[in-house]
Amino acid sequence: MRFYYGIISGYKVHQRSGSSAAAKLGVHPQQRRVAVSRARLQRHLELTWLQGSSSSFPLTWLRDNCQCPKCFHPDSKSRTVDWATCDITIKPKEVQVSDDGKTVIVDWLDAHSSRYSAEWLHSRRFEEDARKKWLSTYKQEKEIWQSAEETEFPRKRFSFEGVMSDDGQLLQWMLELERFGVAVLEGAGCDDERTVRKLADRVAFIRRTHYGEEFSVKSKMEPSNVAYTGQALQLHTDLPYYEYKPGVNMLHCLVQAEGEGGENQLVDSLRVAGQLKQSHPEFYKALSTIPVDWTDEGVEEGRPFRSLYRAPVICEDSTGKVFRVNYSQPQRDSHFSVPVEQVETWYLALKQFTQLMLRADNRVEYKVKPGEILSFDNLRICHGRSGYTPAVNQIYERHIVGAYLDWDEIRCRIRVLSQREQ
Q: What is the pTM of this model?
């Protein structure tokens, strides 16, 4: 065991080191696992790695994340340290490094002892490269669309049977959805209205809304939604009146309208938001700061509903990146609960945003084929539909079965499958 002491609250400096950890490992440098060659107690715990780089770990963070059985439950992977009684100002008495460099032991002045593996510490370094690597498991970087006039759509097709039977293909489909926002699955058949449920169950489970779990998009008598007609649907995102809006929309085509009409229209709102921010920054600010009252009211299968959510058209996260777009002409309430002087600018901004979405280089048209599932990011992709003529006598010329998934469940599945492939 190698012992290292440092200056903490006036404690004396003393150091005694043993033989080289590199020599004791006895492996080729490229094959060595993460190991510590030196540790010092200063304002932080300073570790020097076998490869030569160094990292600093705040003492408070170390005590909060003690891995001993009293402070951490290994089966549930949960911190159990009692935060009400934990002294976050406690200082270490000494730090020790095992001879092989794989374990760091911190002995505290209150007689508590904490052990940390070198690999555990290395993966939790506070340096930028480690933080970026960890955050890449949180969400994938989104790839903004290029010009719709120059890009072949869909960019990728996936076999429905392959996704259902092979974890690797399932992972690639979900990654494509997160990065690019749209993916098409083919070979899903045309005779099973529960196919989207099977796909959802392959990931996690369907997200239920007041329209149910699976929903059939076809012309209906006395429709509760304009989607249940044959008329054109303006570009929109689904369910903007939900605070926790479903993340992914899956539309399974059982029957497609013959002749003209029934084409899906798709727009990458990240591309359009970027264009608006560059050309009209004052309009971008209006759409990203002024809240809108999004509502939906009706009766579905005998059950009345009245939903309301307030949020801007363009929603930014703490880093200024767009993470959600709310856009739906039918679902904007006539109540506009903002100061009157903001209204005119907001309307001008929305008009400019709409005109950008309708530009040929921003809008894709794709007529989904029977047996295909069109899947897309409902927080990002605005979608619409050209009008078609419904059949008479309840013989439908177009029948789409849809369902939703939540991004929390998709990303959970991505992490599990990605870890298996490592």
A: 0.86
